[in-house]
Amino acid sequence: xxxxxxxxxxxxxxxxxxxxxxxxxxxxxxxxxxxxxxxxxxxxxxxxxxxxxxxxxxxxxxxxxxxxxxxxxxxxxxxxxxxxxxxxxxxxxxxxxxxxxxxxxxxxxxxxxxxxxxxxxxxxxxxxxxxxxxxxxxxxxxxxxxxxxxxxxxxxxxxxxxxxxxxxxxxxxxxxxxxxxxxxxxxxxxxxxxxxxxxxxxxxxxxxxxxxxxxxxxxxxxxxxxxxxxxxxxxxxxxxxxxxxxxxxxxxxxxxxxxxxxxxxxxxxxxxxxxxxxxxxxxxxxxxxxxxxxxxxxxxxxxxxxxxxxxxxxxxxxxxxxxxxxxxx
Length: 329
Ligand code: ATP
Ligand code: LTN
Hints:
The protein has 13 helices and five strands. It is mainly α and about 325 residues long. The protein has two domains: about 5-185 and about 295-325, 3-Layer(aba) Sandwich (Rossmann fold); about 200-290, Tyrosyl-Transfer RNA Synthetase (Orthogonal Bundle), CATH 1.10.240. Strands 1-2-3 form a three-stranded parallel β-sheet. α3 (about 50-70) crosses α12 (about 265-295) and α4 (about 85-95) crosses α7 (about 120-135). It is globular and about 70 Å long. Bound molecules: adenosine-5'-triphosphate and L-tryptophanamide. The site of L-tryptophanamide has 13 residues, from β1 and α7.
């Protein structure tokens, strides 16, 4: 049976190899055998103030990157969140069923708000909007990186809670889909932190649109350790393990084979080879991105996606309004 797949990426610039290996790669794998909907979650992006002009450009960048990595609008629905009003509407309904206590425990909120009294309420409600994104399409499967586990659990809790109150057929209870390798790519300058778009040091990440010189600099300068052994050991050798993971997923070579191949060989050679592998993987994406971003078709693709997404969303919204006794239409 084909499953409904839903996921989203924020249009915040700097889409990096962590986003690609943890999430976007799964999006592409899933689109052949499933009913996939992929969103550019611009409403999530404004939880932190954004320059409107830059936001618009970033939305188009992510859309072009979606297509450049291999998403096909003939197979998947690709659209911008704020073009479908059901996201905000369902978020409100879910907020009325979410507890302030459970939202206070979300680690992303704790990290980003840093206990400030003036943190925007949107930052606090962010995981509820994410739950709305997912539940709005009766999604079965949500491909994401490991950092989203807690938000997926909350989505499931909310769906089950509402189903218990308003009837089992109100929401489909979704499942997260996490890859064995790539689900958590770490920062190159600090392998104890996840690679992030918002980290200050640009050498902490490799963005999908970085040129070869930047890729080289980030990898050659990446933090490793001093024992000189190329071995996968997350606890004692997090830096080398992270580089091995990146090498393995870009080259398709199992980590065990890489360990054998690099036995007795120093970090310099290993890193040089990883530069080649990474540049080789990203060059075609960059080239396709430039073509797609400049073509006039991108906006039409997104408009068409929004129409199709809206149709799917309205089916669920009619059911939900009805269950809650909202509206009279
Ligand atoms: P930030 O790092 O600034 O918090 P983000 O990259 O987590 O932003 P999104 O653009 O919304 O935010 O993430 C898109 C997808 O990429 C999500 O599925 C997320 O789980 C995944 N992802 C993010 N960082 C990593 C990472 N370091 N490794 C693997 N997957 C990741
Ligand atoms: N919260 C996610 C982005 C996101 C998402 C979604 C992912 C928003 N809505 C729905 C999957 C499904 C993040 O910060 N990475």
